[in-house]
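Ligand-bound model needed. FE2/S2 (inorganic) cluster.
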Amino acid sequence: MSRVLSISIFRHNPRDPASVPHMETHELAEAPGMTLFIALNRLRETVAPDLSFDFVCRAGVCGSCAMVINGRPGLACRTLTAALPEHISLHPLPGFALIADLSVDTGTWMRELAESLETWVHLAAEPDIDLLEAPMEPKLAEEIYELDRCIECGCCIAACGTAQMRPGFVGAVGLNKIARFRLDPADSRDDADYFELVGNDQGIFGCMSLMGCEDLCPKELPLQTQLAWLRRGMARQGLRGIFKKKDNE
Amino acid sequence: MPAPTAHSLPRAIHWPATLDLAQSVSGLILALFMWFHMCFVSAILVSQDAAWIVARFFEGYFVFGRALPWLVSIFVAIISSLLAVHALLALRKFPADWAQYRAIAAHTHRMGHGDTLLWLVQVVTGFAMFFLAPVHLYTMMTRPELIGPFESADRVWSGFYWPLYLILLFMVEIHGGVGLYRLALKWGWLPAGDTRAGRRRLALVKWALTAFFLTLGLASLGAYIKLGQEHALQAGEPYVPTWLRVEPAQ
Ligand code: SF4
Ligand code: SF4
Ligand code: FES
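Prediction:
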């Protein structure tokens, strides 16, 4: 266990007119239990003081450290160097605005997504906070919680061929959120409302089932199941819409 | 500007849902049809009489007492339209320009991810079939009576169709197999509750079926090539089943 890692890092600062995108390679002695988070910090402390990358929680909870590791998106803080070959290449997540080097702006993207898909509970009426909340079946609560575990890291967008080809696509992160609210009995929206949001080619019908999201979501969310469930529901709603239109005529 | 809400947006159009559904349904029918088709073609592996019976069966010979080849023409026309619809719908999912093509190609290369690569395979095989399938379909539609053991063998060998059929065989079997696999994933019909196990099982079934139909197809094409070679000198002579042959007078 005395490997010397060679780590190639994408370097570019778009705000510096003199900066040219290039790869920079550094050698680093591997330590036991080393994650990419530790490795990058060590490089910054020693040879690359100006290296940009994002971390907050170091425990796979905040979603800020997602990057492309040897071609595939993943969380740097949760990736052990021992699981990687000696040569490691690191790129920023594609599909998001580059801040510098490995740091991208997923925040603006996620905020726009939340606004356009209205990813919050739409209550039917203002709740009376003096009353007990309506109880929820534990099984359903667990199902919703399971989908709520999304940390908005952006890996599913970087892993999705559709999202890479078509920047307007809401991706698994967006569709999973809609699936979450669709499960929630507190949300007063019905399928006709959800259809307005994702019953189109930027939503569920744009997804080509490439399964990059399912395979690379670091939180292992059940994305394939959710996408298929949403697709069935939205297809039903789409057909309903067409027949209703015919009836009205 | 406040973010647009579901209620301030114009009512959603329902086309994408229908088109997506139509692409899946047309693909499902075509893929299943291709498997049946392969089973019928492989009748030549049983005997020449078997191939003759299958060919006449679809011309209604055993119902009407005589062959009505135009029945086959109608059926081929239906399949052709279905293929056209499927191709048009699939076109919506193709990379629309060079930039999109570059994006998906670079992404596929970078990720080294099986299911993503399979999609590119679908694009390439689909594109190839778009040009190759019409040649076969046109012949079948305009000359349906030329389906039979000798007739087909002559087309394959003397008519030099075998290279076309060889390529088509691979394109069709791969495209159909991958397509059915993706359909199951897309709509969530997995052979197990757990996605991972279900996908593994599904992929296994898919490759087994593709291998089976490719073998069957290659064997059938091989049989037709051999028969075509043997029959080359009499090319054009129709097949008469053994029980209808009149012994030449001594
Ligand atoms: S669905 Fe998974 S990959 Fe996508 S943003 Fe959420 S946690 Fe990340
Ligand atoms: S299944 Fe594929 S196309 Fe659909 S969201 Fe996931 S990665 Fe994208
Ligand atoms: S630092 Fe928070 S997920 Fe990696």
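The longest helix of chain B spans residues 195-230.
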